[in-house]
Amino acid sequence: MLTRAGSLSGRSAMYNANALKIGLFGANCSSGRSATTLPERWSASWPDCLKLARMADAAGIDFLLPIGRWKGYGGETDFHGTTLETVTWAAGLLAATERITVFGTVHAPLFHPLIAAKEFVTADHIGEGRFGINLVVGWNEGEFEMFGVSQREHDARYDYAQEWLDVIKRAWADDDDFDFDGNFLKLKAVRAHPKPYGNTHPIIMNAGRSPIGQAFALRNCDAFFTATVDSRSSIEANAKKVVEIKNAARAYGRDIDVYTIGQIVCRPTQKQAEEYYRYAIIENADWGAVERMLALKNITPDAVSAAEYTKQRQYFASRGIGGYPFVGTPDRVAEELGNISKAGMRGIAVSFVNYLNEVPYFCDEVLPRLARLGMRQKN
Ligand SMILES: Cc1cc2nc3c(=O)[nH]c(=O)nc-3n(C[C@H](O)[C@H](O)[C@H](O)COP(=O)(O)O)c2cc1C
Questions:
Q1: Residue spans of alpha helices (H) in the chain
Q2: Which one-letter DSSP state was computed for residue 152?
Q3: Residue 47 pLDDT level (bands cut at 50, 70, 90)
Q4: Would the CB of 23 count as within 6 Å of ligand 1?
Q5: Which residue CA neighbors atom 15 of ligand 1 most closely?
Q6: Which of 80, 139, 319, 350 to mutate to test the pocket of ligand 1 (most atoms within 8 A of CB)?
């Protein structure tokens, strides 16, 4: 195991030598990343999250990435209607685990930076250097209205996030009191102790998709998540994308890890996996929730043609929410995940319809195959 003291590279490596980092995405939200009406859909209850985290920790999963979500999307299941707040969730799970990295996902405009800095440090001490941050600026108007906070215009969200993060990094680093005189934040004689665990700071990730969001990530973050990559089977296309992102980061004098997301249905036979995927994600989709999410992106029957709407609905249900589907036998899923690593990606955050039911099979069958492919160590 890599040392936990004083090294940002140790944190970025999640204190292990796995070339391909694997995390679980979205387990703090009801239904996870699958807008399905099936009764086995994910509860996101605390007992289920705790059991999952302990299981994942023991099996060698590298990280847990929660979603910062404040208001459900409606539909028959009220998709994401029940969620656990991510930093307190992370703190509880870090106390109950030993080696897994746990992220907190924070909307910069909703948290005062000094409160956030203190919460992050607290979680980081609980986890002895295993806490990470997913910094988001928000995109869902309804969520902000609920707080009485108006959304800034898109690019200004990242200007604000820059000051917010600058304050946090200074609070983590400066031993002496400091003043901060920004365009948005004006703070006097700021003092914050303790500092993060082990003379370094939590790894920070961001998943901005717009040019300004991506530039923010490259300037400030340790890990960048790309939302979707067109074809996971094309190693060349993905490798090109990774090189472009890493080169863009180097222009800022920075080295950044590239991650992606996906959903997994892994079963003993290809037929079983494909049938369950179709049954859970398409035949039993929560179409009301899918339509609400499309409407948030201004995709409605009034805004686009009927044929386009049908196409978008289908695409969003199958890939837009959970990301690329890795559907198949352990051999097939391991091979496809291996292709991500071959393309130069550092890792992937994945979801399952029911994590507790499905993660054990994935860990028993897929992780050893990835170890044999040389992409992960044996647990
Ligand atoms: C892996 C991943 C995790 C994300 N997590 C959240 C989240 O928890 N809450 C949220 O409001 N947005 C989340 N987002 C949205 C992004 O932060 C970002 O706002 C979105 O990709 C649009 O990019 P833009 O802000 O540059 O326009 C996530 C996106 C990805 C790909």
A1: 8-12, 46-59, 86-95, 113-126, 141-147, 154-173, 211-220, 235-251, 270-277, 287-296, 306-315, 330-342, 355-372
A2: P
A3: very high
A4: no
A5: 207
A6: 139
Residue 341: strand, helix, or coil = helix
What is the atom index within ligand 1 of the atom nearest the CA of 105? Answer: 8
Strands 347-351, 178-181: pairing is: unpaired
| Residues near 323 by beta carbon (within 8 Å), at least 6 away in sequence | 33, 227, 228, 260, 261, 262, 263, 351
pLDDT band at 3 (very low <50, low <70, confident <90, very high): low
Predicted confidence (pLDDT) per residue in 53-79, tens digit = 999 999 999 999 999 999 999 999 999
106: left (phi over 0), alpha (psi -120 to 50) or beta: beta
AA letter at 364: D
- pLDDT-derived band at 125 (thresholds 50, 70, 90) equals very high
Token digits for 110?
């909703």
70 lines ligand 1 (CB under 6 A): no
| The two structure tokens encoding residue 332 | 């097939």
CA of 343 to the centre of ligand 1 (A): 23
The Cα–Cα gap between 315 and 313 comes to 6
For 168, list phi and psi in degrees, rounded to 5.
Answer: -60, -45
Q: State how far the Cα of 279 lies from the Cα of 132, in Å rounded to an integer.
A: 35
By C-alpha distance, which of 20, 15, 18, 21 is closest to 99?
Answer: 15
Kindly give the distance from the C-alpha atom of residue 126 to the centroid of ligand 1, in angstroms, as a whole number: 26
- For residue 293, what are its two tokens? 């999410």
42 φ, ψ (degrees, to nearest 5): -70, 135
